[in-house]
Sequence to fold (276 residues):
Amino acid sequence: MASKTLYIGIAAVVVVLAAIAALLTMGGQQPPTTTPPPQTTTPTQTTTPTTTQKKTVYIGAALPLTGGLQSYGIGVKNAVELAVEDANKMCPNYEFKLLVEDTGTNPQQALQKVQTLYAKGARLIVGPMASGEVNSVKSFADQNKILIFSPSSTSPLLAIPGDWVYRIVPTDFAQAMAIADLLKYLGVKRAVIIYRNDAWGLGLSNAIANETKKLGIQIVASAGYDPDPKAFPTAVPEVIRKLSAALGQPGPDAAMIFVTFEDDGIAAVQAAAQDP
Fold:
C-alpha cells in the first residue's frame, strides 16, 4: 500500500505542479534591511558542496497511437509529455522519465505493452484508453501493483472497488440515461442496438437497455460484432442485416442505436444506409 500511495502522489504532482509553483513564488514585500555592526572574522575552511543524486521515476504511457482511437491517443501523448517536462523543471530532486508504447487500440497488444513498460521500470502508467484494453491489462496490473490511469475508459463493467485501475471520467451509466432520454424525446418506441463486442460496447449496450426499459422503450434485439479491424468490415454488415430484420417495418417510432468507435462506426452507418 505504501508504494501505491507513492505513485498516486507522483501522478498527482504532474497535475498540481503549476499551482504549487504559483504559490511558492507568491510573497509580500521584503522586510527592511539593517546594516550589522562590523565584526572581526577569522578564516574558515571551505567545503565542497555535495550534489544530491536525483531519484529516477519512470512513468509509462500505454496509448493508442494507431487504430480506432489514434487521434485521441496522440493528443494524450502530447499532454503527458508536457506534464513530465514541467515536473522535471519543478522537482529538482526527481528525474521523471517517460516511456511510451503504442497499444494499437487492441486489447492483446495493450497487455503486451503494459508488460513491456513494467519490465522497463514503470509502476505508474497513463492509459490504456479503451475499456477493452483496460479490461485486458487489469489482472496484470492488480497482480503487480501497477497504477493504471485511464483518461477515457467508461465501461460500467470495470467499476470495481479496491483495484489498481483509476479512471478520471464517469462511467457510461450517465451516457445511457442521456441516450434513453433523447430516444424518448424523439418519440422512439422500439429500437435495436449494434455494439462493439468488447468491455465498453457490451457495458454501454446493457446500460442503454436498462434505461430505455424504464421509459417504456422496447429494445427488440441487440447484437455485437468483432471490433478487430480485420474482422469488422465483413462482420458489421451481417449484424446490420440481422438487426434490420428484427426491427421490422421502419418508421418514426423505430431506431437503430450504434455503440461504436469512429472507424467501425463509419462501416456500420454505411452498411445500414445500404440495407433496404
Q: What stands out?
A: The helical segments are 2-25, 70-90, 107-119, 131-144, 172-185, 199-214, 232-247, 262-274. The first strand starts at residue 55 and ends at 63. The chain has a mean pLDDT of 83. The CA atoms of residues 144 and 242 lie 43 Å apart.
